[in-house]
Amino acid sequence: MLWSLIGQRIFWGCVTLLVVSLLIFLGTEILPGDVAQSILGQEATPEAVAALRHDLGLDVPPLQRYLDWIGGLLRGDLGLSLASGKPVAELVGARLGNTFFLAGTAALVAIPLSLALGLLAALHQDRALDRGLSVSSLIAISAPEFLIGYILVYLLSVHAGLFPALSRLTQRMDLLEQLRTIALPCLTLTAVVAAHTLRMTRASIIPVLAQPYIETALLKGVSRARIVVVHALPNALAPIISVVMLTLAYLVVGVVVVEVVFSYPGMGKLMVDGVAKRDIPLVQACGLLFASVYILLNLMADVLAVLANPRLRHPK
Questions:
Q1: What is the CATH number for 295?
Q2: Which mean pLDDT values do the consecutive 10-residue runs of the chain (316 residues) have?
Q3: Using CA atoms, how far apart are residues 184 and 106, in angstroms rounded to an integer?
Q4: Are 143 and 195 in contact (CB under 8 A)?
Q5: Is the residue at 2 inside a domain?
Q6: CA 209 → CA 30, 98, 120, 241, 272, distances in Å?
Q7: Does residue 141 sit within a domain?
Q8: Same structural domain for residues 281 and 166?
Q9: What is the pTM of this model?
Q10: Domain presence at residue 265
């Protein structure tokens, strides 16, 4: 039964990825502007523009270009950048590690912090601490990432001078210098995702605390902290695992705005630069990579939720 569920989720994940690839292709097709015109400049003759469009394969019917793109992906060929002429895989590979470094560092901070605060909020339900955490998390969720980023730049960079305003990461930096360089984008991502995970953890724990066996444990004199950690938390693992995996997915996919705000050399910044230059193969590759990571982490969330909750293996 478990393997059947996993197989179904993998199948639908592949179908979703195929649909997303079509949407990405259609989205890049309707981008305004002409790649050939932007490469040659406004003074280029129509003949030169037409010749370059032919060389770049832009005069081929869209359906044929889509099929060629999918065929190249299946062979591991992401194509060539229209702006630089370099292989897209090379450009993506140079930035992918930076994005995972930023997302991974933010995850190491945000997930333990948010789980701990969510448990504290559940322990002190409807008290001052719970209300304070709920209001703070709601503000963090409501505020857009760029606003949080600019506020942190003003407070911690311009005013306090603790961290650099621009996160220009280089390979020559040691680990401590790299961590200091990404501190502000890391804090921005942490503020957003920790707030959401905190609220989901609290919402998952509180219904479990209302169960009869929890009341029995309380009557036996077991401390509330032990009840939450030993009795309630294991029974709320499935939704918590799901929100943690979705948090990881957002950290990888949602870095686009943060990377642009802090000029961080990651995948998000590369994708935005590709859109500005009408570099269609680069934008398509970045978009599909983000979608693949998101779908994969959602698949992992489903599988881990089934493993954590045996009742999900036998749906009614």
A1: 1.10.3720.10
A2: 76 89 86 71 77 77 86 85 84 88 90 88 86 90 88 91 86 86 92 87 81 80 76 73 80 84 90 84 89 86 72 56
A3: 10
A4: no
A5: no
A6: 52, 41, 13, 18, 46
A7: yes
A8: yes
A9: 0.82
A10: yes
Range(s) of the domain holding residue 229: 92-313
> What is the number of structural domains in the chain?
2
Does residue 226 contact residue 265 with C-beta atoms inside 8 Å?
no
Six token digits for residue 279: 């570099």
User: Domain for residue 55, yes or no?
Assistant: yes
On whether both 41 and 130 belong to a single domain, the answer is no
Length of the chain: 316
- Within this chain, do residues 218 and 308 fall inside the same structural domain, yes or no? yes
311 vs 70: CA distance, rounded Å: 39
Is there a single domain that holds both residue 163 and residue 49? no
Among candidates 251, 259, 276, which has minimal Cα distance to 191? Answer: 251
- Sequence-distant (6+) residues with CB within 8 A of 207 are 236
And the tokens for 32?
């305004």
Q: How far apart are CA 46 and CA 152, in angstroms?
A: 48
pLDDT at 314: 57
pLDDT at 183: 92
Note the pLDDT of residue 311. Answer: 60
